[in-house]
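thought: user wants a sequence for this fold. calling inverse folding tool.
action: design(structure=
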């Protein structure tokens, strides 16, 4: 029997290790999906330090989605109302590079935009940055991480002087108090939650606090669930800070030695007395006191957060307010403690390392910093001044850019903006105005393919090698173990080929993904995310590695045996040295030296500003949106897995019984949900799991999977001024009951003839301009 192949689950940022085996393993029946197609089998990898053999339903079923409805060949059309025709790679890439040249000369490089994804490998991210920011000289590269992690990035940078979650998953096993705010960890980061829950169950003293307007599966097992009103997180956090200060839990030595700006912060929290805070948040004073007590009395406090914090018009301030609590109690840089942002996508972290947002450069650098630009220009062999000092367009700025006619070419890869962007009607209208859209995808169709002029088939996970970094800064190699279907190619290979066609031949000639990686890590040398000690080979033989991992300090000395275990080879150097340096990589800031000029962390003094679009008489309810355990985003993969599809009947809206009675809606009755921007329809799910005056809809059902059930038809693009991350978690809506039958609605024009579950490449996507 052959050994299983070790890789990483390509769904969420937990980054679980997978053991995958071919469909046919000798002595066993061939593994097939329900349709009878032989498929690889995925299991948890016990040797992976992050997940220790565990997986959730998404990871366990990933192989069933890989072969269905794939985009197999490049396709092209002159205008969006024509059908696609199959073309060769040569024709497609010739067309793309010609168009780039034309736009550069007629409109300038800043009329070119690329919108990428936390589902890229680090190698894909890197080559895209080199092409866009380096050789084309425009910073118009942004990723869907703008909708996801950018508030966490901005918060870390402002408070600590650099990005990078300081904690690790081993902290889950040793903390005394877990403070989960704006995260439905049980459904969205299940294996992180499993580890935490096991520890929580085993140790009576361990407290679990959950802050969420919904009683999620995460909140159900909490010792304390604070069901705050949406948008009152800063009130709560400042309220807890007030109590910590006045109940004697301040670590004044830590504050004096390792922080700045405490006085300004202390002045702000004076306004957050318990009675005021309890009222604003809609919780009891006792619960607020309990939260502060749990925090203050625990030796080790680990806070975790995700989209309930980041997706907010005050997202960065929320992140910094969480960090404030850690700084005032000295809860950082030690086991079981620290502010831990849970990353959404499998390689959102790698994206940050490679500079994959429109204000970043590789190696945790910033386009605004002249020295950073000079370092990268020199490394890439560019003329000084070639990298623009101005941050490029964010995802939403690309939409407004198309509205203004300022975008000549939009290149979308590994994301499905026709479902996931805010204010979807506006987004779709803008996409219709794009004069030339390239869409690089693994599947066909997706909702976004209707807006493309050129479709480029991408090899996805399992079909091309690359690396990904998970939430605890651990890099795992994802080897290729399947042949890409049709003519699909790796994303970075496509970027590099276009670059060469544009005349940048030598800088974009790579000898494989390992070569791209080796070049990229040189740009992390001496940076907070130093990965110069990591190579594809080392990951292959030694297994996943956390950064910082500095070349020379720790070259690695473990190999894998046939049994998949690890042992020290005979030529081993000092194992103590290895473990010391690997140990040092587990947690950041153990020496309390932060990446600010004076080494001190910074307190932030922020008042609560509340929601960007608060409810009013016309739109009296707050709509919040989010995820379900089984589905992944826009369902391109999970919608094609039988087991997962059977878990959910379809989209729905959660509403409190009191509100349901007030508007006269019964369980299963249809509700028209209207915001200032759009309309969607859902059957009602009446539940006390949501606070009154608030409703919840899942984000997973785009136009291909349901009729008018798009969460983002309703949301708005108002964003945090620091992170520019839109407030996808809240908008004001009205609710209108429309009976028990799904009301007849006008078909969504681009998809009249497409059923997502039975498609072939001959399907055209007629679209009226
Ligand atoms: N099953 C599954 N897992 C996933 C994903 C998936 O699609 N499916 N996607 C991955 C990605 S990319 C991401 S970003 C993560 C997201 O992971 P999470 O952030 O955990 O998921 P969400 O459901 O988007 O939102 C979390 C919670 O925020 C709450 N919330 C809403 N408004 C507020 C508020 O004002 N304050 C507070 N405190 N909470 C609020 C919501 O009620 C919701 O329960 O999940 C990752 N994991
Ligand atoms: N209302 C609302 N909207 C939201 C959110 C929310 O909470 N509420 N969350 C936001 C967040 S946090 C996120 S991360 C986004 C996610 O939103 P999207 O990024 O739009 O969602 P996905 O379905 O993950 O899209 C990824 C696409 O990449 C394709 N793909 C997979 N692998 C590869 C590959 O290797 N190469 C290429 N080229 N393509 C590949 C998949 O087929 C899929 O179509 O949604 C955002 N939108
Ligand atoms: S928890 Fe995340 S990384 Fe782990 S198996 Fe599930 S989806 Fe994959
Ligand atoms: Mo995300």
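)
observation: tool returned 769 residues.
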């Amino acid at each position: 029997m052959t050994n299983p192949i070790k890789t990483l689950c390509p769904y969420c940022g937990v980054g679980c290790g997978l053991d995958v085996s071919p469909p046919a393993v000798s002595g066993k029946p061939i593994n097939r999906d329900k349709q009878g197609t032989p498929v690889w089998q995925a299991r948890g990898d016990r040797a992976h330090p992050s997940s220790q053999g565990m997986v959730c339903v998404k990871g366990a079923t990933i192989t069933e989605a890989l072969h269905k409805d794939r985009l197999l060949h490049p396709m092209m059309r002159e205008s969006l109302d024509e059908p696609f025709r199959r073309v060769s790679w040569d024709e497609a890439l010739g067309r793309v590079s010609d168009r780039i040249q034309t736009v550069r000369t007629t409109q300038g490089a800043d009329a070119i935009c690329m919108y990428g994804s936390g589902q890229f490998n680090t190698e894909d991210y890197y080559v895209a940055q080199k092409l866009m920011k380096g050789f084309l000289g425009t910073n118009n590269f942004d990723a869907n991480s703008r909708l996801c992690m950018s508030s966490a990035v901005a918060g870390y940078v402002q408070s600590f002087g650099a990005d990078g979650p300081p904690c690790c998953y081993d902290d889950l096993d040793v903390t005394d108090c877990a403070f989960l705010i704006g995260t439905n960890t049980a459904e969205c980061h299940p294996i992180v939650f499993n580890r935490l829950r096991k520890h929580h169950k085993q140790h009576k003293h361990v407290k679990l606090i959950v802050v969420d307007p919904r009683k999620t599966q995460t909140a159900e097992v909490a010792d304390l669930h604070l069901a705050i009103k949406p948008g009152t997180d800063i009130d709560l956090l400042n309220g807890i800070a007030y109590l910590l200060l006045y109940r004697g839990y301040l670590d004044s030595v830590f504050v004096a030695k390792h922080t700045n700006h405490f006085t300004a912060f202390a002045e702000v929290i004076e306004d957050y007395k318990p009675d005021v805070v309890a009222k604003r948040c809609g919780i009891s004073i006792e619960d607020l006191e309990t939260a502060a007590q749990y925090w203050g009395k625990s030796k080790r406090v680990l806070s975790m957060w995700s989209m309930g914090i980041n997706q907010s018009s005050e997202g960065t301030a929320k992140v910094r307010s969480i960090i404030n609590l850690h700084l005032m109690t000295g809860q950082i840089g030690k086991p079981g403690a620290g502010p831990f942002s849970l990353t959404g996508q499998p390689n959102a972290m790698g994206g940050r390392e490679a500079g994959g947002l429109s204000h970043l450069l590789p190696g945790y650098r910033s386009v605004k910093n002249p020295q950073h630009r000079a370092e990268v220009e020199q490394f890439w062999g560019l003329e000084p001044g070639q990298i623009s000092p101005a941050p490029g367009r964010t995802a939403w700025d690309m939409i407004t850019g198309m509205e203004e006619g300022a975008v000549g070419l939009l290149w979308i890869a590994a994301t499905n903006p026709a479902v996931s962007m805010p204010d979807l009607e506006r987004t779709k209208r803008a996409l219709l105005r794009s004069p030339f859209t390239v869409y690089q995808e693994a599947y066909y169709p997706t909702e976004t393919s209707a807006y493309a002029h050129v479709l480029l088939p991408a090899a996805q996970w399992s079909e091309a090698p690359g690396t990904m970094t998970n939430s605890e800064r651990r890099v795992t190699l994802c080897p290729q173990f399947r042949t890409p279907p049709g003519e699909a190619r790796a994303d970075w290979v496509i970027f590099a080929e276009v670059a060469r066609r544009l005349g940048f031949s030598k800088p974009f000639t790579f000898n494989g993904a390992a070569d791209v990686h080796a070049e990229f890590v040189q740009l992390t040398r001496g940076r907070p995310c130093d990965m110069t000690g990591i190579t594809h080979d080392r990951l292959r033989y030694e297994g996943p590695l956390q950064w910082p991992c500095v070349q020379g300090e720790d070259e690695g000395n473990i190999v894998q045996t046939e049994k998949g275990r690890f042992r020290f080879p005979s030529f081993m150097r000092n194992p103590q040295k290895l473990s010391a340096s690997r140990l040092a990589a587990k947690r950041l800031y153990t020496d309390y030296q932060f990446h600010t000029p004076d080494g001190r962390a910074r307190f932030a003094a922020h008042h609560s500003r509340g929601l960007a679009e608060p409810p009013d008489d016309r739109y009296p309810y707050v709509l919040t949106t989010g995820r379900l355990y089984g589905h992944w985003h826009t369902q391109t993969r999970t919608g094609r897995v039988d087991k997962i599809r059977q878990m959910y009947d379809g989209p729905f809206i959660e509403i409190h019984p009191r509100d349901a009675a007030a508007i006269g809606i019964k369980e299963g009755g249809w509700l028209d949900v209207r915001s200032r921007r759009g309309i969607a329809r859902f059957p009602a799910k009446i539940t006390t799991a949501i606070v009154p005056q608030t409703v919840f809809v899942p984000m997973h059902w785009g136009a291909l999977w349901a009729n008018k059930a798009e969460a983002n038809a309703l949301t708005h693009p108002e964003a945090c001024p620091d992170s520019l991350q839109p407030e996808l978690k809240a908008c004001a809506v009205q609710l209108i009951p429309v009976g028990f039958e799904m009301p007849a609605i006008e078909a969504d024009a681009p998809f009249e003839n497409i059923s997502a579950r039975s498609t072939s490449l001959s399907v055209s996507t007629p679209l009226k301009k």
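thought: summarizing for user.
answer: Here is the designed sequence. The pocket of molybdenum atom (ligand 4) is lined by residues 148, 344-345 (CB under 6 Å).
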